[in-house]
Amino acid sequence: MKTLIPPTAQDVLDFWLGDGLERGWCSDKRDELWFGGSPEIDTRIRERFGALVEQALDGGLGEWEARIDTRLALVLLLDQFTRNVHRGQARAFAGDARAQQLSLQAHASGMDAELATVGLVFLNMPLMHAEDAALQAESVLRFQRLLDTCAPELRDTLGRNLEFARLHRDIVDRFGRFPYRNAVLGRTSTPAEEDFLKDGPRFGQ
Predict the structure, then answer these.
(1) Which of 17, 21, 108, 182 has its CA 20 to 30 A from that of 8?
(2) Which of 27, 25, 67, 16 is nearest to 151 (CA)?
(3) Mutual orientation of helices 117-128 and 133-149 as an angle, nearest 10°?
(4) Which domain covers residue 36, as residue numbers?
(5) Considering its fold, how many domains does the chain have in total?
(6) Is 106 inside any structural domain?
(7) Which residues contact 97 (CB under 8 A, 6 or more apart)?
(8) What is the pLDDT of residues 173-205, one digit of tens each?
(9) Among residues of the chain, what percentage have pLDDT more than 90?
(10) Given a cut of 50, is residue 145 above it in pLDDT?
(11) Can you tell me the distance from the alpha carbon of 29 to that of 155, in angstroms, rounded to the nearest whole number?
């Protein structure tokens, strides 16, 4: 019987970003993987990376924080893969605080200067997911900076990223949180949030 080799930080990066870190952006289309949220993709990630996700959520893999590439892999486990592995559960958000700190620290130390554009997008994502107005403002600033400095062929893509960052910010500025998380987190929606949930925008979880 073949023994499965435990996945590493490089496996995480290869699975999520393909050749993106080498090229600046991925040569293949990845929107379905990144934003599709299908049961099949959830199962693939759970089976291959579920154990690593749990390690990260339990505070492990601290050695991955030392380099920007492995730090990015840790952020992906905490901020992206959690949402696949624990879709529809409160634990989907259990890695958010650590991911936000890893992102903020990388930026403050200048570690992120070495990262390709697609890597910066996902290093910034924990800020877009934050239920915190200051972090949302920082998210918009970072995505604006990416758009301002990107290669011409990435302007449309990064323009959409900036648009989504602004929409996330506006929701948190209005409610202080994402109302569409209330049910899974056991929070009671206010009347204004209930109105919003009828037809307001929602993004993932």
Answers:
(1) 108
(2) 25
(3) 160
(4) 9-199
(5) 1
(6) yes
(7) none
(8) 999 999 999 999 999 999 999 999 999 888 888
(9) 91
(10) yes
(11) 16
- Please give the structure tokens belonging to residue 22: 């080498």
- Buried/exposed 170-191: b ≥16 CB within 10 Å, e otherwise: ebbeebebbbbbbebeeeebee
* Torsion sign, CA atoms 16, 135, 170, 177: positive
1 occurs within a structural domain: no
* Tokens coding 93: 């958000």
Give the CATH number of the domain where residue 137 resides.
1.25.40.10
Alpha carbons 133 and 171: distance in angstroms, whole number? 9
Query: Within 13 A of 34's CA, how many CA atoms are on the CB side?
Result: 16
194 belongs to a structural domain: yes
Q: What is the pTM of this model?
A: 0.95
Classify residue 181: in a domain, yes or no: yes
Mean pLDDT of the chain: 95
Return the H-helix or E-strand segment holding 166.
helix 155-175
C-beta of residue 65 within 8 angstroms of C-beta of residue 44? no
What are the tokens at 11? 């496996």
Distance CA 79, CA 96 (A): 6
The residue with tokens 């050695």 is: 63
Crossing angle between the packed helical segments 9-17 and 39-57, to the nearest 10 degrees = 150
1 pLDDT band, cuts 50/70/90, is very low
